[in-house]
């Protein structure tokens, strides 16, 4: 169910233990071949599938699509807000949800730059609302073993506007992908302890702008290996994992 599509009375009649899910995404550059709303479209797709499968067993909030993308600001079109702004804004929305009595809340993240502040939101909101269970899910982290079996590129092949994100967009809306502009592999590595990709975290973290990581291309990974069929497989894996997690809250 979509929060904004219900009436006030219909919201009032709902079981307050129903899981409430909000997508936090991004409007930012995605290389020469993907639109700025790629992260928002991907997050929205997963929650549409969640809604289709679980229906009256889940309540989906309106998404927050402009989030923490300062590291992409070297590229035209990127929109961003400060971490403090996102913390305050999302926390205020979740506080309204809690004020209406809902106790199971999930942030569903579809942008790498939201992971740090997303965890801060969970920690700060959870400490102030002890009667709620609040969690953070990032789509590529909820089923990493299964997703690794889909990946054809080696380490560093999935990152940003990459094999996975391009595949998902080909599956979701192939007409939005500039197929004649899909580039090859791009990923500028750094210290061994800081190297990572979507599925494999480094031993530590190191701040770099997207221009640095991508060598100026805006792409981290290998979108040349993308396909709509692969996007469909990724979608199935993520949605199944997401449904399992949401059901567990009931």
UniProtKB/TrEMBL annotation:
GO terms for biological process: riboflavin biosynthetic process. It comes from the Bacteria. One of its GO terms (molecular function) is metal ion binding. The keyword Cell membrane does not apply. SUPFAM superfamilies: Creatininase. InterPro entries: Creatininase-like_sf, Creatininase/forma_Hydrolase. Coiled coil: none annotated. It holds the Pfam family Creatininase. Keywords: Hydrolase, Metal-binding, Zinc. Its cofactor is Zn(2+). Gene3D superfamilies: Creatininase. Belongs to the creatininase superfamily. PANTHER family: 2-AMINO-5-FORMYLAMINO-6-RIBOSYLAMINOPYRIMIDIN-4(3H)-ONE 5'-MONOPHOSPHATE DEFORMYLASE, 3-DEHYDRO-SCYLLO-INOSOSE HYDROLASE. This is Creatininase family protein. It comes from Microvirga thermotolerans.
């Amino acid at each position: 169910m979509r929060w904004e599509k219900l009436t006030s009375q219909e919201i009032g009649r709902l079981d307050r233990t129903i899981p409430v899910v909000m997508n936090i995404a991004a409007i930012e550059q995605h290389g020469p071949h993907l639109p700025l709303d790629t992260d928002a479209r991907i997050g929205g797709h997963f929650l549409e599938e969640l809604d289709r499968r679980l229906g009256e067993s889940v309540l989906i909030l309106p998404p927050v699509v402009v989030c923490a993308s300062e590291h992409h600001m070297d590229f035209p079109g990127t929109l961003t807000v400060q971490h403090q702004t996102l913390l305050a804004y999302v926390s205020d929305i979740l506080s309204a949800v809690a004020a209406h009595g809902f106790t199971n809340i999930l942030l569903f993240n579809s942008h790498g730059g939201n992971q740090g502040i997303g965890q801060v939101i969970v920690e700060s909101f959870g400490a102030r609302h002890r009667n709620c269970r609040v969690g953070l899910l990032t789509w590529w982290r909820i089923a990493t073993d299964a997703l690794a079996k889909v990946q054809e590129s080696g380490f560093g092949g999935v990152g940003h506007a990459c094999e996975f994100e391009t595949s998902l967009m080909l599956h979701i809306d192939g007409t939005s992908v500039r197929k004649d502009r899909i580039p090859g592999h791009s990923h500028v590595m750094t210290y061994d302890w800081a190297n990572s990709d979507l599925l494999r975290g480094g031993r530590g973290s190191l701040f770099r702008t997207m221009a640095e990581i991508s060598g100026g291309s805006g792409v981290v990974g290998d979108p040349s290996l993308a396909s709509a069929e692969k996007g469909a497989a990724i979608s199935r894996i993520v949605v199944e994992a997401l449904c399992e997690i949401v059901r567990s809250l009931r």
